[in-house]
Every structure is written in C-alpha cells, then in structure tokens.
Amino acid sequence: MADLLGSILSSMEKPPSVGDQESRRKAREQAARLKKMQEEEKKKKADFRKKMEKDVSDFIQDSDSKKKKYQPMNKIERSILHDVAEVAGLTSFSFGDDEESRYVMIFKKEFAPSDEELEAYRKGEEWDPQLAEEKRKLKEQAQREAELESQKGPKEVCPSSNYRDKYSHLIGTAAAKDAAHTLEANKAYGCVPVANKRDTRSIEEAMNAIRAKKLKKNEDDCAGASSS
C-alpha cells in the first residue's frame, strides 16, 4: 500500500512534458491577444461615442440646422449614434438598401420628418418641400374632381358621328329592305303607321267587343225581317 501511494505522489510531482508546456504557452498568448483586441475595440467605441456626442452637441447649438446626414457607417457605429441622439432628445433614422450603404440622419424634434419625407429618403430621393406641396395640391384636386364626377352619376356617351352615316356602305342594302318592308306594312293598313294599328286591348276586352258586334248584327237582322 505504501509503495502504491508513493508511486502516485511521485507521478504528481513530475514536471509537465515539453508538449504540455508549449500548449499552455500558446493558450496564454492567445488569451493575451484576445484581451488586447477587446480593450482596443472598447477604446475605439468609447472614442467614437465621444466624437458623436460632440458632433451632436454642435448640431443642437446650431440654430440654422434642422437635420444632418452622416456618411455610411457599420452597424455598431449606427447603434452608438442612435443612442447618442436619443439621449440628446433628437430623432434619428437609418436609410440605405444594403449594409455597406446604410447611413444615419438626425433631426431636431421640432423638425421631425413627415411620412412623405421619410418615404423619399427610403427611395434614395432628395426631399423638396415645395415640390411635395405642389404634388399634394394636385392630388387633392384630382380627388375633388373624382368626387364631383361620382356625384353626377354615369356619364352619357355621345358618339361623335352617326353610325349609319359612318357605315352606310355596309348597311345601305339592309336599310333599303327595312324601308320597303315598312312601306308594304303601311299599305296593308291603309298607309297608316303600323304603331297606330296595334291593338292595345286585352283579350277579354277584344272578345267582349266581338260578342257585342255579333249581338248587334243579330238584332239588326231581326228588325229587318219584322219590317219586311
């Protein structure tokens, strides 16, 4: 038992091998480099934030400035600028289609952008208040005209020319046939328009009239026979 315990203690007291020493040295160097990079990144962020705080402060103190557009930034820098603007009581937005071109614009609260202005920036267009006002007036005028038209009801379409005149070479023969047919019908009714010869009575009224005529004829016949 004593020999076994001694062998364990002796193995624990042995110095690490050359391979273990090299691995530990590389691990320590890697940890040192990582720590240095983290410290440098932290300092870089702090310096950038300090720069933005001064820039935003100058912007606020400039009474002529209403908004400011920055050059494209990476995601971390944009996040810092948005935070600085919020703390300073400003409004900020990011614009740009892809990560490399995205940039930040800051606005003073009293000059916060409208939805139309934001839409222009999202499309990559310059904002022109005068042009936007003209477009708004034209749009309102078009809406008023559309409402007036809807109140008038459906619009009656008047052809610019008579279709019979326009297509006389095609319908001339048919028109002549219609005229001949109308003339023959008028002759059959004693040259009276067909519309005037239409019987508008009901069937019952017509039958009553026929019966009355027959009855009157019979009475006339009987009266004639008696007189003879």
TrEMBL record:
GO terms for molecular function: nucleic acid binding. InterPro entries: R3H_dom, R3H_dom_sf, R3H_sperm-antigen, SPAG7. Pfam families: R3H (PF01424). SMART domains: R3H. Residues 21-57, 134-155 have a biased composition (Basic and acidic residues). Residues 1-71, 134-162 are annotated as: Disordered. Residues 46-109 form the R3H domain. CDD domains: R3H_sperm-antigen. PANTHER family: SPERM ASSOCIATED ANTIGEN 7, SPERM-ASSOCIATED ANTIGEN 7. This is Sperm-associated antigen 7 homolog. It comes from Erpetoichthys calabaricus. The gene is SPAG7.
